[in-house]
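User: Okay, second chain of the day. Same drill as before: sequence in, structure tokens out.
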Amino acid sequence: MASHVNPTVRRRRLGQELRRLRELKGMTAEEVAERLLVSQSKISRLENGRRSISQRDVRDLCGVYEVEDHRIVDSLMQMAKDSRQQGWWHAFGDIPYSVYIGLETEAASLRIYESLLVPGLLQTPGYAEAVIPGTVPELAPDHLEKRIQVRMRRQERVNEPERPLRLWVVLDESALRRVVGSHLIMREQLDHLVEVSHLPHVTVQVLPYDAGAHAGMSGTFSILEFDDAADSSVVYIEGVTSDLYLEKTNDVHKYTIMYEHLRAQALSAEASREFIAEAAKSHADAMG
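Assistant: Same drill. Structure tokens below.
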């Protein structure tokens, strides 16, 4: 079983349990940090699953929290051990958004709002090859190839036979109109969008220009949900130098409401397919 454990999700579950133990003890992260002679930021990163946690860390924290049940301590120690295993993405070296990939790999459903480009899970190789260096202009050629390979590997979740990712995408019209790479690349990309949108577990909706002002104008975001009740939903907001993960119930609720408004303003799934097909035709026409 351990070889199939998702280290990112295991770290997250472990962090949640450590936070619960701290709160039961009535201690603040600052107080724990003072007891262990570490920084408060380390305690916070351990609890939110953004930092690798050692069995020694778990032992020390259980000591501070006076956990006397050895079965609990042993269970947490095993979780720490499992969390230090490597996911498939580690084979590609240092990937800046590896935490997100770990969550995406384990997610049961994913809702995406994207305003400027086609989401990575739905990109063709040609589109990915054009858009990645455009968004990361200083990326070295070998790193570009690595990013493309990771992106294509991530897409296996969409078509996984036993447990396909339930994917819902609201896409701004601008993502269909902007010429990334060439009109040929765009035509192939939009044809692929139409094809994928026919899958029973994939929904693609277009938010046309004439929809006017909408809830997504403050920025793009994704909402990940998991089958295991122990794993709370996560809102992911990608940044240039760092990413934001929101897990508080109130935050997730606000973004969920925003997404419902976006879905309501967007074209229906069928109308969106027709819209995307027309956009693909306009790129074909532009090729002459």
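The radius of gyration is 21 Å.

User: Thanks, on to the next one.
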